[in-house]
Amino acid sequence: MLQRVVEEIGDLNRDAMEKAQQRLDSLIKPPGSLGVLEEVAVRLAGITGNPRPEIKNKAVIVMAGDHGIYEEGVSAAPQEVTYQMLPAFVNGVNGIGVLARQAGARVVVVDVGVAVPVNYPGVLQKKVKAGTDNMTRGPAMTRDEAIMALEVGIDIACQEIERGAELLATGDMGIANTTPSTAILAVLGNLPVKDITGRGTLVNDEILNNKKKAIARAIEINKPDPEDPVDVLAKVGGLEIAGLAGMILGAASKRVPVLVDGYISSAAALIASRIAPKSKEFMLPSHLSGEKGHRLMLEVLGLKPMLHLNMRLGEGTGSALAMHIVEGALRILHEMASFDEANVSDVDKSKVLKK
What we know:
Helix 6 (95-103) packs parallel to helix 15 (317-335), helix 7 packs across helix 11 and helix 8 packs across helix 10 (205-222). The protein is α/β, with parallel strands linked by helices. 54% of the residues are buried. The chain has 16 helices and six strands. Strand 5 (258-260), helix 13 (263-275) and strand 6 form a beta-alpha-beta unit. Strands 3-2-1-4-5-6 form a six-stranded parallel β-sheet, sandwiched between helices. It folds into two domains: 2-52 and 332-351, 5,6-Dimethylbenzimidazole Phosphoribosyltransferase, Chain: A, domain 1, CATH 1.10.1610; 58-324, Nicotinate-nucleotide-dimethylbenzimidazole phosphoribosyltransferase (CobT), large domain (Rossmann fold, 3-Layer(aba) Sandwich).
């Protein structure tokens, strides 16, 4: 399935993008004066193939998984928090529940790798295994398990699109998941672990040092191949990261845009972009996380975030907020008048800098 989905990912529709840009340039404003809103509108036209796209059905997909490297003392939060948080996701009382509700998006919660059995109604049971293995002692998972988790994400994305979703957003839940995310960035970005490792749940210096040592040891022991993103994912990644990467690939294959949340989601986006480079065209980066390595992660991806709010919660909170930016971009295309429609004199194009 994975290979078939990768092969189905196409290019942006340049004709639709050109028509959307022409519409934007005709509106009662100086050319380009709405900045990122215009860029988002044009990108959505290219993704959907519609010069004036509409998005009414939105979903945030939250992948949940645990991490064997937790044993190395890399997190201040107890591992059982992953499991304990799931009812809050389902009941809509945590951060993403509140912000998704405000954005008019449903939240889909998926157990792809929680360490204990999950029996909460409303959580989709797609467990590949009960958490990754401790990657300081060997691979986090087998290659087959990594592919299975990727395909869970593909399946969920396709199911939500079949339910009508026109915009998907990534979300995560997994104690210690900034650790594998940093390992992925170190390998695929060829960056020193000591320079990119952040504090995650605001850990103290002792835990931060444990984290740096654990990541460096995992990379040294497993020797992930940066030319093989599935190998990197299997050796130093996470099950929820794999699920999110698969979700991005699945959405791209169906020409549906994906809002990428923060650090963990960006690690998934980085994996997806290396598996299928064209998938990057279908990603909309939502915000710049407060996590230390996120700016570098986005630079490696070649993506610019819409929002700078110093958030670091994850869960999909940044991507839910960015849904309002997307809605604003599309409202501009549909509802703002052109110079002709408003009987306003157009600007002299000869006096405007070319883009």
